[in-house]
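Check this.
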Amino acid sequence: MKFNVASKQLYNQVAAVSRVISSKNAMTILNNFLFVLKGDELTITASDIENTLTAKIEVTEVEGEGVFCADARKIVELLKELPDQGITFEINETNFAISITYFNGDFSLIGINGAEYPSDREVVDESQCLELEIPAAEIIDGIENTLFAVGSDEIWPQMMGILWDMKPENMTFVATDSRKLVKYLNGNIKPGVEGSFILPVKPASILKNILVKNEESVKIRVEPKSATFTFGNYVFNCRFIKGQFPDYNRVIPKNNPYSLTVDRLSFLNSVKRVAIFVEQGHGLVKFKLEPEKITMKAQDNTLCTSGTETLSGSFDGSPMVIGFSSNYLIEIFSTLKSKDVILKLSDPSRPGLFLPDENEEGNELLMLLMPMTVSEF
C-alpha cells in the first residue's frame, strides 16, 4: 500500500481530527488514527467511542488500498514540523510497518491492523431520524453564546451540555449551571422539523473550532442517541447526553420591571479592575444602583483590601443594592457583543436578566444570573 500526499494539507486534517482523541483512553488503539485508502481518497478517523470525527483528503501515486492505524501524536507532531511538500507513505501489509519519506528525510514507525479499530455505529429506524441543514455561521453563534454557561457538576448531567431545541421556524440554544442561564433563539435557522437533544461540551467545542463561518451549510442527521454533522471534508458523529433538560422557560422571570442600561465595554473593564479585590473563593462584587450612576465595590476583609469604581448608567428604579459574582459577570459581558447591555431587575434576591440593547433580526439573546447575598454596601 502506497500513496503521496501534500504534507500541510494532511497536517490540517489530522490536527483537526486529533481533537477527538482523549488524553486517557480505555482502549490503547484509540490513541491511533484509522487510515482508509480507497482509490485516490484517504480517510482519517479518530474516536473516543462517544465521538468520532472523519476527514477526507485526495492523494496521488496510489498503489493498492486498505486500512491501517498509526500513532496519532507522532503523526501530528511529525507533519507539523515537515516542510510544505509531497510526502510518501508506504505500508507493509504484512506487519503494518509504516515508512514516511520526503525529499531529504525518511521516518518509520509500526502501525496496527485497521481491522482492530472499534466501530459501534448502531442501525436505527429511519422513522426516528431527523435531517436538516443549518448555515455553519449560525451553529458557531449558537455554541459561542451558550458554551460558557454549561454546568460541570456531574450530579446534574443533563446540564453538562447545550440544549438544541428545534422548532419548524427557529432553533433555541440553551445552557445552564443553575447559577446562570443563556437562551439564544435563532430565527435565521429554520429546521422545518421539531425535536431536541443535549450536545455535550466536548463535541460542541470541537464543532466551534473546526467549523468555518463561510461554510455554506452543515447537514445534520439526528438519531435517537446521536447526531452526525457533515460539512466540507468532515463527518462528525457524537452521542447525546441522556435525560431531560430542565424547563428553561419556567426559571426565566416574566416580570422584571426595572431596567439598567450600561455601556458594555466600560462596565466590563470596571468589573475586571474591581474584581482584583474580591474575597478569594467568593467573588462578590456589590453594586449600588442610582438613576444616573452605578457604584461597584469589592473587598477582602481578611487582607484589608478593597476596590470601588463609579460609572454612568441609566437606571429607572428606586436606588438598589445588589451583588453578583465577578467571574460570571465577566463571562456574560465578554460573550455579549452589543454596544450597550440592558439589565432587567425586580429586587436584590431575584435573578437579573442581561440583554443586548439590539438583537439581530429574528434572533433573541437572553442571559440570566442569580444574585449573591449582600448585607450592606
Notes: The mean pLDDT is 94.
